[in-house]
Design a protein that fits this description.
alpha/beta; six-stranded mixed beta sheet; single chain; 10 strands; four-stranded antiparallel beta sheet; globular
């Protein structure tokens, strides 16, 4: 089931001519990418192509060296951000959920407390309401029976599903996934992908950096291929996987051929 869901109206989140340098090393070069409401955009490409750095810029974890990040048309990051942009960034930060490759759960907190921490501190939600919401989310990701467990007692797949529940607890407008299954073995990857497919079916706006070509092909509404810090190709999944336009994309896809 391929979700062909075109951008409607102002994009939820967008990068405009974004470049990123670390000292003299340029990691991103003039990236422009917009994600519309209910889209599932899958970013693929070889390791070191800048995919994670792009995601971190969109999540406001890195500041672009050039260009700007926008959310619903409002600038939320740029190299010369003024007080108005910084205020806007603070206001929308809870609307951007991030799921990391290595889970990033707090090891000293139970599963339940991992999920309720941000709603309590950032949204100042009443504790009983936060607990009720967390229990619903843990049930949603298939972990209702693990609320009192600590991360060290969970499998990698379970930890990543807790991380997804934690991100959902802030009711984000967009979820960013940074290779969420790359640290997992095949069986545990399936657990996480089932949850991600469910979120896509429910209409969650998602930007997914992934090496899961089956997910990109069957769930993505668009595939973006990056290499050497640039967007080389962007297409609907059916077009990208059947007739990639560039030699770089064709070489990349050959490694996944049966």
């Amino acid at each position: 089931m391929t979700n062909q869901r075109p951008i409607a109206g102002v994009p939820i989140i967008a990068a405009e001519e974004v470049s990123k340098r670390f000292r003299e090393h340029r990691v991103l070069s003039r990236i422009s990418l917009a994600v519309g409401e209910r889209e599932v955009v899958c970013v693929v490409g070889p390791s070191g192509s800048g995919k994670t750095t792009l995601l971190r810029c969109l999540a406001l974890l890195e500041e672009p060296s050039e260009g700007r990040i926008l959310m619903r048309g409002n600038v939320i990051a740029s190299p010369y951000a003024d007080a108005g942009v910084r205020r806007c960034a603070r206001a929308v930060r809870p609307d951007i959920g991030m799921v990391f490759q290595h889970f990033n759960l707090w090891p000293h907190m139970s599963v339940l407390n991992n999920v309720i921490e941000a709603p309590l501190r950032v949204k100042e939600m009443a504790r009983q309401d936060a607990i009720a919401m967390a229990k619903r989310l843990l049930e949603k990701v298939g972990l209702a029976d693990k609320q009192d467990a600590y991360p060290a007692r969970l499998s990698g797949g379970q930890q990543q599903r807790v991380a997804i529940a934690r991100a959902l607890a802030m009711s984000p407008k967009v979820l960013l996934f940074d290779e969420p299954t790359s640290a997992l073995d095949p069986e545990l990857r399936r657990e996480v992908l089932v949850v991600m497919r469910q979120l896509a079916a429910e209409g969650m706006t998602m930007l997914v950096v992934t090496h899961e070509m089956s997910f990109a092909r069957n769930v993505g509404s668009r595939v973006v291929f990056m290499d050497h810090g640039e967007i080389v190709e962007e297409a609907a999944p059916a077009d990208f996987f059947s007739t990639p336009k560039t030699e770089r994309a064709r070489r990349f896809l050959q490694q996944f051929a049966d």
